[in-house]
Amino acid sequence: MAKILVIDDDPLMQQTIRRILERDTHEVHTANDGHDGVALLGARRYDLIITDIMMPRQEGIETIRSIREQANGLPILAISGGGSLGCGDVLSAATMLGANDALPKPFNARELIAKVRSLLPANTPAA
Description:
Elements: E1 3-7, H1 11-23, E2 27-31, H2 34-43, E3 48-52, H3 60-70, E4 76-80, H4 87-96, E5 101-104, H5 109-119
Parallel strand pairs: 1-2, 1-3, 3-4, 4-5
Helix pairs in contact: 2-3
């Protein structure tokens, strides 16, 4: 079971991701923005971070940079619908600046689980 932190300002998206990943036997914690997510990272150990890019207070690119400063080897999955910029440009920037992979919104459960499993360290304990 991996410990995963989901950072997204949309409560429905948080709940959806949590449900999908908990069914895949992961422990999931959530944060409403990058500022809160980075604070949680300082208090706990995670195996993977999933972060939205377009958020208030501290957006995803800044969040990715902060995570890299604290835990450089921690896998990060960037997610975004892209807003007015388009998700391709936003997610490309996220991967160039430190995210290990990206997933455009909307996505389905299979796509999310496949990305998560590909990013988890091989030694992550199974449930």
